[in-house]
Recover the amino acids of this structure.
């Protein structure tokens, strides 16, 4: 007797892993006009939404760590990590959340 066990392909699992990046604060004049509430989705396959290349470059390592389940000891349970845009004169603060 042959027993079949359903197995997800790796690509199916990867397609379900996402990090939502949401603008939670913005001051000054952002060159890409980010506004509070803007959302960007990062998957292993790409990015959905618009994000400044400078912010993306600085946020990418943290987003990929979160994508694969990283926990940061300085983030309290139930809170999501935040990330500041590198433009100190026009700061944008992003919140990162792993979603499935």
């Amino acid at each position: 007797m042959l027993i079949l066990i359903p197995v997800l392909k790796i690509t199916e699992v990867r397609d379900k892993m996402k990090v939502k990046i949401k603008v939670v604060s913005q001051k000054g004049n952002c060159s890409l006009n980010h506004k509070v509430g803007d959302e960007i989705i990062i998957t292993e396959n790409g990015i959905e939404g618009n994000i400044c290349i400078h912010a993306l470059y600085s946020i990418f390592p943290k987003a990929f760590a979160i994508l694969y389940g990283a926990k940061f000891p300085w983030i309290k349970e139930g809170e999501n990590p935040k990330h500041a845009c590198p433009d100190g004169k026009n700061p944008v603060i992003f919140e990162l959340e792993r979603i499935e």
